[in-house]
Amino acid sequence: MKILICSKRFYPHNVIGAVRPTNIAKNLQAFGHEVTVITYKPDDHDFEELDNLTILRVSQSTFIEKWKKRIESTSINSLKRSFLSIQIERLFAYLYEYDWYLQAKKKIKKISNKEYDVAISSYAPLSSLYLGYCVYTKGIAKYWIADFRDNIQSEGSPKILNCLLNKLEKRVYNKANALTFVSKGQQYMFCRSVGVPLNSEKKTHVIYNGFEDELIINKSSKSDCILRLAYTGRLYNGKRDVSLLLKALSSLISDGCIEPSYVKFIYAGNDSDVLQRQMKAYKNIESCVEIVGYLDKKEIKSLQERCDILVALSWNTEFEQGILTGKFLEYLCSYKPIISITSGELAHSELSQMINDMDLGIACEYINKDNDFQHLKKYICEQYQLVQKGEPLSFCPDLNKIKQYQYFNQIRKFEKISFELMEGEYL
After folding, report:
1. pTM of the model
2. Of 47, 231, 335, 340, which residue is least crowded by CB atoms under 10 Å?
3. End-to-end CA distance of the chain
4. Which contiguous run of DSSP H or E holds residue 345?
5. Domains, the chain, ordered by start
């Protein structure tokens, strides 16, 4: 098949939004398909392009880049941004994406004489989604798969904006031949938003994110007797809440169950101010917390290898469900126990279900925090004691289920949907 991937976020960027489309392209090419990618042209040209992929890189317009620098400069120099300035920045963000779409549209005209079997668009950002819509409606691709890494609407957006985005959701649903989502919860939220039964007309599918590297099983013991836990990623102004873990560590120290010098919680990310706010109630853990700031993909991998337990954070609300950070799927190939903590008013999050289904560690939810707090304390104490004895941690996951989340296996589903579209199954 000839496949065109429309994704502004792509290699060499290491942000999670670029990892998924990059793996879609690499694996579909490895399966023997002819893959072309249209994506953003980064300022840094010091990188090697991926082999055997035709990559069309598109820059923003010079005019819009100048305005971006001006707005960013104003934001940095202003300690307190007004409501109006925040709205202007939000509006500009949409204009910025629309500008890239217009530049990419010009590039598309140069290949309009070439017909692709399938176009796969990535969301977010919106510009990638617009481009997929354009490619399909102009007949450059026979079929269109709209892939959603995020839901279009969000809980923090103004109602009027969500109303407009809902109209876009309905338009995409009616136009695209297939829609794919990174979780069952996001699939459910989208179908509920557009007012169609779940998986109506076999049009919507779940294709999870995954991990790229081979699963390496390592049960070696350690010599320094320090239990290290790590969380890498954003905290979304507290929507991802690590307080339950901090409280458990604090309580275990107060009870004399663990020695502060032999436990370490490491945070890698840009939201250190949020973490420090969550730490304020637990003064006895300050020596146990290490904030290392933002790390690139290679550094994060190294940190995970040095740690004993990895922490996954999410939320589960009436408005936003199925929130599975890509970092969680990347954790799987580390062969390390995972503590998941989910905030929000709904129980039985998809993250918790996956942790339990694969026997990855312990799943905690704030909706059941009193009970889960005790379980978390017991779990940490047991693992701490094993480390103190120089023994491997307690960890016996379901390896067959974990291997299903290797990107190679997940991307096979895109291939399957594409073949079925070509065979006319959904027509």
Report:
1. 0.89
2. 47
3. 19
4. none
5. 2-210+406-422 (3.40.50.2000), 227-402 (3.40.50.2000)
